[in-house]
Each structure stands twice: as structure tokens, then as C-alpha cells.
Amino acid sequence: MGTIAILEETRPLNRRAATVALLMGRAKRHPHQTQGMRDAVAVFEEWMTLHKKKVAEMKAAEKERKRKEKAESKKKKTNTSRSSSSTRSRAKRRPARKGATSSTRSSSGPTENLDGNGGSPTDTSNGDVHR
User: Using CA atoms, how far apart are residues 18 and 128, in angstroms rounded to an integer?
Assistant: First the structure.
């Protein structure tokens, strides 16, 4: 059984690449290369080329999948916010409080009165001035 076959069965993809790169480097730089080492370097280089293509395809597929997920998520958010925005704004509105007045004051509420001597204002419910 060859080295690459053993790696394929026992190691994850990233460790396979690291192991092949290590073995290839050792075989290339060995001071007393044999014909078997030279043959192994050719096999390792071919495997690395295929591995790099495979990894590039996997990354491109993952990038495309994430792009589609993001587009779908954005589309859902847009559709959700459009359909429920008017409902949410209606739900947030509170009914008017009892006795609340509008921006213009009504004459039915308490009034401010000043005493004749330029004193401080007083608030009464019947309009009388307290001294």
C-alpha cells in the first residue's frame, strides 16, 4: 500500500497535504537521492496539483453557498420588514389617555390665575384664586 493511499484512509485533508509536502521536500533535498525518491517526488507533485485544484473548488463552492445564504437572508428580512412594518407601527400606538389634552389647551382643565397684585400663579379646579 502506498503512502498516499494510507494518508487518504487515516488523515484529514489538511494533514494529508502537510504530510505530502513534508515528504516531497525531504525527497527533493536529500543528499543521496535514489531513483525511487525521484519517482516519489513526481507522484507527490502531481498529488499536490490535484489537491490544490480540489481545495480551490471547495472554497469557491463554499463562498457561493455563503453568498446565496446572505442574499436569501437579506431577502427574507426585506420581505418581513415590509409586510409587518405597518402592523408593528399600529401595534405600538397607544390609545389616548383619559383626560389627555391635545397640543391646544382646552378650557375644561385647570387654569392658571394671577392675583391682582402681580403675585404667583395658582392652580385651582374651580377657577378661584387662593391668597
Answer: 95
